[in-house]
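Subject: Sanity check before I submit

Could someone independently write out the structure tokens for this chain? I want to compare against mine line by line before I put it in a report. The sequence has 134 residues.
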Amino acid sequence: MSVDLYNGIPFFVYNPKNLPVEHLPVVFGYDNDGWYALKLGRLIAEDGTILAKAESKSSDLLPYELGLLEGYKTHLQTRARLHYPHGFRMEYVAAVDVKLHPNLQRAFFRFTLARETKKRQDKAREKAKLKKKT
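---
Independent answer below. Compare away.
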């Protein structure tokens, strides 16, 4: 579920074509839980591309650290703009909701699929190089 505000601050939306916001792709910021005193967060695009990582002393601060909110960490918002030049919206997923969030799970699946495909391609290239040498 998407929330429009976090502590009264709007989530960042980049919408240069003024499309309905619900039609824009999503960049998820999620709480990867982390260790005892350190919370880990990531930005992942709907297509499975990891855009950024962040660390924080508190889960409450991760939306700020990940640039999910209007006016915070604008360099991360720029990175997302480069990935989705036609527009996107940011959404935060708390650690307790990560496993239950179907769209975030799809993004994880796409990430895993892309990583496995790249591994297979790298192995095939290595094999071809070895074959050329012999």
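---
OP: Matches mine. For the report I'm noting this point. The chain is about 35% helix and 25% strand.
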